[in-house]
Amino acid sequence: MEFIRPEHYLPNKKGIADVKQYGIGLIGCGSIANSAHLPAYRKYGLHIAACCDVNAEAARATAEKFDIPFWTTDINELLAREDVGVIDLAIHPEPRLEVLKLIGKAPRPVLCQKPLALDLAHAERLSQEAARLGIILGVNQQARWAPAHKALKTVLEQDLIGEIYSIHHYMRSFQDQAGWWWTNMANFNIVDHGVHYVDLCRYFNPYPEEWSRVHCTTAQLKGQMQSIR
Ligand SMILES: NC(=O)c1ccc[n+]([C@@H]2O[C@H](COP(=O)([O-])OP(=O)(O)OC[C@H]3O[C@@H](n4cnc5c(N)ncnc54)[C@H](O)[C@@H]3O)[C@@H](O)[C@H]2O)c1
């Protein structure tokens, strides 16, 4: 019997032969880019070639903080750069279609933040548009690579715990935090953050067919900001 080891589930750079070849062009210099994407890129020595945001101050401050050699508010300027090999799309779902069309003029592989969209029709539209424009579109469902989840996947692959009949995720969270974009967002705990757990159901599914049922729910106390609509 094989047992899991840290190299099975901890992040690594295996498979990236030449980081320069994959210079990253970041579109969207907001909270998640600054707090998670860029520190991780820096930690693993990846090359961040350029960054862009419609908010000039966000683009400038991000470039300064992470020593990014080029910043702009114009996506076309970012796309014109030869050192941008891949795009990190760290904006909200609403402007994604418009931005994807611009990237389509000089297609690069795109890693798009989750949730891809807030409804299925929009997600399908983005997927179709990416295919039409020749863009490889990945969705950043990074919970799959969180060490605990990757370790569990390894356990499943090694058949250490037998057959899976159901999966239960229990998430303790709330959106009663004033001043954030999610504070009053409808169904935030399901459609935004909760999408990680829906995705993990797929990731952990050992069968070729989809699960026959997936449900999720939240609770709300009187006076809580959480909006269930
Ligand atoms: N994977 C995760 O665990 C995780 C965690 C947090 C956020 N996210 C997702 O990341 C996305 C962004 O979240 P955030 O917290 O960084 O939001 P944010 O509001 O802090 O940042 C978004 C940035 O995008 C910029 N922007 C908007 N339209 C643009 C355009 N057309 N071109 C260039 N820049 C544009 C805004 O000016 C802003 O700086 C959301 O979809 C969110 O759900 C994912």
From TrEMBL:
<feature type="domain" description="GFO/IDH/MocA-like oxidoreductase">
    <location>
        <begin position="150"/>
        <end position="221"/>
    </location>
</feature>
<keyword id="KW-0560">Oxidoreductase</keyword>
<comment type="similarity">
    <text>Belongs to the Gfo/Idh/MocA family.</text>
</comment>
<feature type="domain" description="Gfo/Idh/MocA-like oxidoreductase N-terminal">
    <location>
        <begin position="24"/>
        <end position="140"/>
    </location>
</feature>
<dbReference type="Pfam" id="PF01408">
    <property type="entry name" value="GFO_IDH_MocA"/>
</dbReference>
<dbReference type="InterPro" id="IPR055170">
    <property type="entry name" value="GFO_IDH_MocA-like_dom"/>
</dbReference>
<dbReference type="InterPro" id="IPR036291">
    <property type="entry name" value="NAD(P)-bd_dom_sf"/>
</dbReference>
<protein>
    <submittedName>
        <fullName>Gfo/Idh/MocA family oxidoreductase</fullName>
    </submittedName>
</protein>
<dbReference type="Pfam" id="PF22725">
    <property type="entry name" value="GFO_IDH_MocA_C3"/>
</dbReference>
<dbReference type="InterPro" id="IPR000683">
    <property type="entry name" value="Gfo/Idh/MocA-like_OxRdtase_N"/>
</dbReference>
<dbReference type="InterPro" id="IPR051317">
    <property type="entry name" value="Gfo/Idh/MocA_oxidoreduct"/>
</dbReference>
